[in-house]
Amino acid sequence: MKGIYHIKSISELHGMLGCDPPKHPSVSLIRFSDMKFPVGEAEFSGATVDFYVISMKDSSGQMKYGKGYYDFEEGTMLFAAPNQIMFHSHLSDEILDTDGWSLFIHPDILYGTALAEKMNDYTFFSYETDEALHLSKQERTKINTCVDNIKEEYGQNIDRHSNDLIVSNLDLLLSYCKRFYDRQFITRHKQSKGVVLKLEKLLLDYFKSEHALEKGLPTVKYCAEQLHFSPNYLSDLLKKETGKNTKEHIDYYLLEKAKQMLMATELNVNQIAYELGFENPKSFSKLFKKKTGATPTEFRQN
Fold first, then answer.
1. Inter-axis angle of helices 281-292 and 246-264, to 10 degrees?
2. Which one of 1, 18, 157, 234 is CB 3.0 to 4.6 Å from 224, fit for a cystine?
3. pLDDT tens-digit profile of 86-128?
4. How far is Cα of residue 89 from the mean position of the Cα atoms in its chain?
5. What is the signed CA dihedral for 228, 231, 237, 240, rounded to 10 degrees?
């Protein structure tokens, strides 16, 4: 077989990695040292999986996640949602020589639970590899305790309480990760402040130029790409630093430009909407009223 594998089940994953059969159909913890890659580089370029992946690296080294290689520091965590490319043949020797683990969670175990409703709130599952979570020794201990509890629970004889206890410990694990990411945003305040200033300049320049007329409204994805972040990471960073996510920052500078044009030019509302990048003037008027409490015409008159 060649190219990218698509792995649908935990059992299939264990087979590909050369591990013993899993003890639970929907959750498994595998240490890097236990992973084996039986296929050669020419035959194997990666694999996607139908489950969530949480990885902890306990020593320095490299691993492939998503778009590129990532240099792990001690106590570094990465997260991936289903259907991301998770393995690469070049890394087989590197993984075997490093210390760490990956926790695989199939969505089946979450169905009907409160955690299933919360998974979209954990935006770090779509962060890029260079936006990893770096942990202190104490934080790493908390994470490993949660993971050990999950492993212990699925390693026993499964009964009617097993899934509830596994999901409860997973919920606690993800709650800690969210807290530690918030801490990371705070401790990197100087870096975050620089990002805020770069975004402000990016948006000011965008609306001063012909970009809006030529390209339409700036999107969250556009801003993230220009600042070299993933969309969710940028929004979370800005929210922690300023209280507003990327979309709210875009709307703020858009409305400031709209107000300026309404007061200082004789362009009609439709012309202003098109110059700001709106395809439909009604969308402009609706957003303007929602944010200011007045229609563009009422704002100009008053």
1. 100
2. 234
3. 654 444 444 445 678 999 999 999 999 999 999 989 999 989 8
4. 24
5. 160
